[in-house]
Write a sequence for this structure.
């Protein structure tokens, strides 16, 4: 257990994972067990696709439960009050300007377990997240990505 990776979470992310775990343990487990029971009642399970599907789903759910329990066991929660506003850190909301397109972007830097680029929540382990960490307001950040080099100016850092 000593080599398990720390999972960095915001309070919101922690609550979301706990809620998902509770749902999987109390609702989904029961639903899949019922599906397996019904499939067995159909008779010969060796050629029963309903049984196979339910068993595969059960395996997925149990794997996700184990994964969530491990993340929660190794969780380090970011306290909003500890988030700096002079340098980008985990939990920071960063307003940046793309120097090529002049587009303003706003990202929240989160741990990989909470990353959701479609919701502007980027991982501290992503190329952009990694490059922004530790930088201050007005700094220019150059990020080497597969499509070339991105250049951003940090305009604001918030909690």
């Amino acid at each position: 257990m000593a080599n398990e990776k720390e999972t960095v979470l915001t309070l919101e992310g922690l609550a979301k994972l706990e809620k998902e775990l509770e749902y999987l343990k109390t609702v989904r487990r029961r639903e899949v067990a019922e599906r397996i029971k019904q499939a067995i009642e159909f008779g010969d399970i060796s050629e029963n696709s309903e049984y196979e599907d339910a068993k595969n789903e059960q395996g997925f759910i149990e794997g996700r439960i184990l994964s969530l329990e491990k993340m929660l066991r190794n969780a380090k929660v970011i306290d909003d009050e500890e988030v700096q506003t002079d340098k980008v850190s985990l939990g920071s909301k960063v307003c940046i300007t793309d120097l090529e397109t002049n587009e303003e972007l706003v990202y929240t830097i989160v741990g990989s377990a909470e990353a959701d680029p479609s919701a502007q929540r980027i991982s501290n382990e992503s190329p952009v997240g990694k490059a922004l960490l530790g930088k201050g307001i007005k700094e220019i950040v150059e990020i080497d990505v597969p499509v070339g080099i991105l250049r951003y100016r940090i305009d604001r850092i918030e909690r």
Q: What stands out?
A: The CA atoms of residues 41 and 51 lie 10 Å apart. The chain has two domains: 7-78, 80-158. The chain has a mean pLDDT of 91. Residues 11-41 form the longest helix (31 residues).
